[in-house]
């Protein structure tokens, strides 16, 4: 009986190791994928930086996304990309209208959804 339990335990340990290895590889794959794409959008932080300036985001949020020249405007840099993207999309589609978001409507309506993804990824990666 002890031999049977020992053999079963050995298989459980091996199975757990293989499962952990597979899950780790899957997490690594998703993390590497996240570096280059978000959903259907190809990420290019150089393009995101140019778009940030093109749409004059720095006017209210600062050139580095951290030092806002306007009192009360949020710091954008180093926030999670998904958070930034969701906030911008919520403002664009008027699912969010609190605070000073209504001031952003004329600008954000000119920005395409793919450009929003580029800007969000750029801001998230500012060091």
Question: What does the model show?
Answer:
This protein is mostly helical. It folds into two domains: 1-38; 44-127, Cytochrome c-like domain (Cytochrome Bc1 Complex, Chain D, domain 2, Orthogonal Bundle), CATH 1.10.760. The chain has helices at residues 2-36, 45-54, 58-61, 81-92, 101-108, 113-124; strands spanning 37-38, 41-42. It has a two-stranded antiparallel sheet with strand order 1-2. The protein starts with a helix and ends with a helix. Mean pLDDT is 82; it is low at 30-34.
Keywords for this structure?
single chain, 127 residues, mainly alpha, Cytochrome Bc1 Complex, Chain D, domain 2, 2 domains, two-stranded antiparallel sheet, elongated
Taking the alpha carbons of the first and last residues, their distance comes to 59 Å
Order of helices and strands: HEEHHHHH
Fraction of residues in β-strands: under 5%
**Annotated CATH homologous superfamily of the largest domain:** Cytochrome c-like domain
Largest sheet: 2 strands, antiparallel
Structural class: mainly alpha
H/I helix tally = 6
Mean of all residue-level pLDDT scores: 82
Annotated CATH architecture of the largest domain: Orthogonal Bundle
- Residue ranges: pLDDT <50 for 5 or more in a row? 30-34
Number of structural domains:
2
Report the strand count: 2
Query: Any idea of the CATH topology of the largest domain?
Result: Cytochrome Bc1 Complex, Chain D, domain 2
Helix content: 55-70%
CATH class of the largest domain: Mainly Alpha
- Biggest sheet, spatial arrangement of strands: 1-2
């Amino acid at each position: 009986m002890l031999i049977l339990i020992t053999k079963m335990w050995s298989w459980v340990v091996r199975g757990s190791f293989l499962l952990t290895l597979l899950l780790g590889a899957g997490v690594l794959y998703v993390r590497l994928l996240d570096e280059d794409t978000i959903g259907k959008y190809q990420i290019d932080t150089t393009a995101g930086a140019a778009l940030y300036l093109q749409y004059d985001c720095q006017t209210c949020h600062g050139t580095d996304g951290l030092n806002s020249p306007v009192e009360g405007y949020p710091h954008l840099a180093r926030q999670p990309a998904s958070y930034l993207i969701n906030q911008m999309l919520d403002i664009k589609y008027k699912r969010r209208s609190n605070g000073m978001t209504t001031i952003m409507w004329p600008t954000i309506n000119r920005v395409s959804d793919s450009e929003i993804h580029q800007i969000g990824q750029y801001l998230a990666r500012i060091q």
